[in-house]
Amino acid sequence: MTISDVHLGHPLVSMTHILQNLERFFDGFTSANTFPDLKVIFIAGDLWHQVLPLEHNGLTDFFVFWYKFCSWCQRKQITLRLMKGTPSHDGTQGDIVEAYTVTTFPKLDFRYVRDLSIEVLDSVKLSVLYVPDECRPTAEQIYEDTIAVFHQHQLQQVDIGIMHGMFHYQLGTIPSNHKVHTEALYQALVRRFISIGHIHIASRFERIFAQGSFDRISHGEEGDKGAYYFVEVEPDTWEPHFLINRFAKCFKSITILNTTPNPMEKVEQLLLTLPDDSHVRIIAEEGHDILRSVDFFAKKYPLLHFKRKLLKAKDKEAFVTAAPAYVAIVLTKETLTQAILDDIQSRQPLDSRDYHALKDELNHLHS
Question: For the chain, how many helices (H) and strands (E)?
Answer without folding.
Answer: 12, 15
